[in-house]
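Hi X.,

You mentioned you wanted examples for the new student's onboarding notes, showing what a folding record looks like when two proteins sit in one file. Here is a clean example. The first protein comes first, with its sequence line followed by its structure tokens.
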Amino acid sequence: MMWVLLPTNTYKHKWLPKLKSRFSSNYFGKQGVMMLIFTFPPLLVAVLSCVYLHLAAKLKPTAKKSDDEEKETRVLATWRKPMLVKGPLGIVTGIELAFLVMFVVLLFWSLFTYFSSSFKSIDISLKNGIRWQLKLDLGGLWLGLVGNICLTLLFFPVARGSAVLQFFGLTSEGSIKYHIWLGHAVMTFFTAHGICYIVYWALMGQMSQTLKWSRSEISNVAGEISLLAGLGLWATTFPRIRRKMFELFFYTHYLYIVFVVFFVFHVGFTYACYMLPGFYLFLVDRYLRFLQSRRHVRLLSARILPAAGQTLELSFSKSPGLKYSPTSVLFLNVPGISKLQWHPFTVTSNSSLETDELSVVIKGEGKWTKKLYEMVSSSAAADHHFDVSVEGPYGPASTDFLRHETLVMISGGSGIAPFISIIRDLIFTSSHLQLKTPRLILISSFKTTADLAMLHLLLPITAASSAATANLRLTIEAYITREKQAAATSPFHNNNVRTKWFKPSPTHAPISPILGPTASWLWLAAVVSSSFLAFLVIIGILTGYYIYPEGKKHGEAGFPMALTAFLYMLVLCACVAAASSGAFLWNKRKSGRDQTIQIRNVEGATPTAGGSPAGGGAVYEMTEELESLPLRTIEEATNLHYGVRPNLRRGSTGVMVSGPAGLRHEAAAICSSGLADDSLQFESISFSW
């Protein structure tokens, strides 16, 4: 990538001047070519990734993999084994470790290149005097430049719907740790950058520089404001603070707006183009999420587990064209609890098995989730509709569970949620596609017997899939860690699971794809490319007919750099908003008729229980029959263990882990050791938002 090549003398002193002299013009400004050099290549990769994902979805391979492809898969699985388990970085695979080492080498090489060349010049030109003060001045500059390399990549992992992540086989959930690593690196370098300059100004008696806002050069005040916003954000990101005061962490994260805006004011828009591609894709994704969340979605039903576990499954209406992969994540906002807070939950339904519904499992483990459980389970819920907004779902572009002969799924508590979606996906595969599915071993750890009610959620509310479970080779090993012995009666018969059906509101709509069901990736490519082209054209006109002529009037002072940055940012946001809104409204108009028909069908099909009249009340409540075929199947497949933790020292073809950090670290340590088979493939599922 070209922005990584900046420290090389060949690129900096030979090729860049040639490109500037050949292509720069007043129309785009003196630094216009730099804007294209550092923004066009990554945005082109993003557009081509969209096209690739669209074609990959249309041309899914159906033939069995060849021996060479199987060999490549085994080699890749070896690289995906955990190499680091415990420590500040968490679980790190071989591939992640290799790229991490290369990135760290790049940072140190950049520092060495900057420091060695500049310090050598100072030593030659100055024999004494203020030599070390100048080194401190330049050292602060080089620390800031290296921090910009980290900032360049900071926003790529948090663009949830970005094609770049899925092109490289990543998910937004799995990429959060990269954002955390990069964030710590950015703030470390930028803090050192700021400290160096403050110390330098103090030693030189130039503390007035802290209040300098230059017209045409670096703005110190803007840099200080950006750094303070970053420090305020950074202080709440450490694990202990984030877990104990999540709301503080959530709200202070909005300081990224202040951080980015004043960073651009600090260095100017042209130099900020180093970080523009990642932020540009994040901005497009963020605005599309904003458009999706403006309309409330229709809540169909809620399966409410016993109060001891405070767990419920919410089912929403969705358009049949919305497709998603297992282990996808949906973000929920309930204005009745908080208008600003968004929380991620694993989607447990299967888009092919349940074509009109999308379900998520929520366990009451914090203030927000406990409040939601109280609202849904209370009898007063019948007096009003639930307003819920969503963003997503987001998940992997594709999954291939059939490559395993045996799939071991290890969960702790609510960590069972991702595996519910996998089990339902394999139910559809075995019953509708008539394909052989792997043997499933679900190892789940629960605190009390009451938590076993979560196993009720392995199957959908509807009994249509009951017969499909007969072909599913499922074994459940359930461990009750805080109870020593079994109760007199079966725990599956003691837990009454209530189901509430909600009457639809005419203002609520099914969850639907943001950019349409059939060509969403192509629409995203069109939004990115058209908005960027419009941005280039508008700033070209703005520069050629306003900024450049006004700058000439002021002579050497030129046009204010901060005002130029503000106008460019304003045009950038306007172009993204216009292109995204146009694509969203076009697809919304096309899908509006289908959604209206679907809502009418759902209104007429709302179930009743106990003879309740179809028009009375907003909520209908019923209790599931505990002796139904699905529950008998689950009970027969479950082996209960009391007073012990799972013994994870066993080999397997595929292992997936979801739950507390200790459980994931233990499984990762075993998978990376010699205790497991060489063909084992490990994957950890962890929410770090």
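Then the second protein repeats the pattern, sequence line and then tokens:
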Amino acid sequence: MILSALLTSVGINLALCLLFFTLYSILRKQPGNINVYAPRLVAEGKAQQRGRFNLESLLPTASWVKKAWQPSEDELLSIVGFDAVVFMRIITFSLKVFSVAGVLGIFILLPINFVGTQLSEDSSDLSSKSLDSFSISNVNDGSNRLWIHFCAAYIVTGVVCYLLYYEYNYISSKRISYFYSSRPQPHQFTILVRGIPIPSGSTCSETVESFFRENHPSTYLSHSVVRRTSKLQGLISDAEKLYRRLAQLKLKNHTSQRFGRDGFLGIFGHKVDLLDHYEKKLEDVEHKVRLEQSSLPGKEVSAAFVSFKSQLGAAVALHIQQGINPTEWVTERAPEPHDVHWPFFSSSYLKRLIRTLLVFVACAALTILFLIPVVIVQSLTNLEQLETWFPFLEGILSLYVEILLHNLLNLILPKVKACHGFFFFLHKIMHFSNINDKGMCNMLVCRTVVSQVITGYLPSLILSTFLSFVPPIMIMFSSMQGYISHSQIEKSACIKVLWFTIWNIFFANVLSGTALYQVSVFLEPQKIPSVLAEAVPAQASFFIAYVVTSGWTSLSSELFRLIPLLCNFFKRVFSGKDDDEFEVPSISYHSIIPKVIFFGLLGTTYFFLSPLILPFLLVYYCMGYIIYRNQLLNVYAPKYETGGRFWPIVHDSTIFSLVLMHIIAIGIFGLKKLPLASSLIIPLPILTLLFHEYCQKRFLPIFKAYPNECLVKKDKEDLNDPTITEFCENLVTAYRDPALSMQYPGSTDGRNSPLLHSA
């Protein structure tokens, strides 16, 4: 039953993937869809909208696969940036790991598991086998064949550690090379200073100027004081929306389209001339903006962006304590100007501290609430146990089957009587079940199919649906914590989503599925290996179905881009034209990287327990390599660069996966009555953690700050750059709040265009 349910899930998702791939190949060539499937190319002027429809565009082609495969890593770096290259290295790292694990698991461990007789005495009858027959649970207790699993654990650990070292070394060296080859950037010469002590009778700007001219006379260049502009930013956003609405109305020649209602959604309220109505509203907003701008000098925050003449000067000021009081003149690295999260500066230190505590509580509450769908999902995976606990469900399922039989089978079967194979299949089932009544056989077949769909496909689909709401919630939580940049917010959200997924999808499912009454055992750490050894293998079928449902289908949905496609379609249908001012999206690393890492955790822990999961993971990573390359080249554009700072997250989580696998191995060999193997596994987690500590000391500092040697060399190169003088002049205003740079013309008639623009 479990194997049939798994095959049902695989079949459904494989059909969905093929459908999405075919539709994508067709829709990407249709007129009007280039803004959905290649917005990056449109924004860069490398692609244009097709004017008319042709029959050739109805033929699905795989040419996009070749175009996504062709660019080298250096070309990818020049087109999409360093973060995208690191992201693709994460996928290729996973491919390398599970290629080796797949060879060991599929060709060596899987046959050994299958020929075991621990679960069934008859190893020749494949039809009587369940999915557990392909796992280590089927190997006889005390069998010498378990030493092969022991050796596989050591081999895979060595391979993973070698690849981790290689990738860490490669990415860190690539990070230095990218730093040398890049042009001077404002954030490399700037630091953020907070906790500025402002004496009475002086301003924040005067205090900063005096302090840094006295303490950094040879390197100090300029500064930009931060002000509270959250209210001003809201007003400017309202003004921009009104201007765009006015511009659209002025482009329409039909007088009837100028009139509408001024209420909610244009449905309620009085009927007015929309052009005059929006012009009056815009005048009011402009007046409020001018009043708010005039009051900004009194809204200084005790923080400032301080720029220096050299990168070494900025680094010295960053890493040396500036004042006697360590809580004053606190320095931190400045983000890129367009990466600054300006609302952060409108909150006081006490508010940020309270928000951090609230975020911690909210994350804990979300984790607890998410256990509800986990329990529901695990109940669906074990339908027989659910019917035992709640007998009335058996009647509901039988009633559902009867309705389905009446509405489907009795209508479909008479139309397919010519299908000899179908009735041959029914005959075999009747002969196998000793059922002579054809209606009862149909009832059995339908009930089996329904049960397979419920236990195999529905649980992972429900869990994936609930999990899709977590990344935006974590982004909201991280933005409340007081990070000064969008990249820090996304990195924090990535870590939150990752550990939320590991706990709620892996541990919660394992415990609720097979150890619901053994949670108290985890209060005794010495029993954790044995508990995990019993619980984890039993959930293999669920996690295989989860990889197929959440992995394969999410990749197909990423390629198909259904929601942007529908939005683009309705916009063209109801407005009659495309939006020329569309915004090129950026890739959501905070939701994609945790999923890639989590599937790596599943593969690492299950490669010797249930190797059947490995082919599904390899398909996922192969699909992901091509699809994400296509999306990075055609769809997404980077909004900021973190310098590859997502890789340390991948390294740490991979080490955690290895240690978890070692703990499970200790327990599983103990349960299999092979105590010597269990004892010999103990050095593995110790050696892995020592390797992790070495990598932390060897490579992690490079991801935190560039070394002095690199800064001195780059400063010497910058001195010979003819554009460095112009760069320093622009650096003075690089960190000015965008809300302070907005200019407004004196009138709102059509002669002034654009109404709003950045200085």
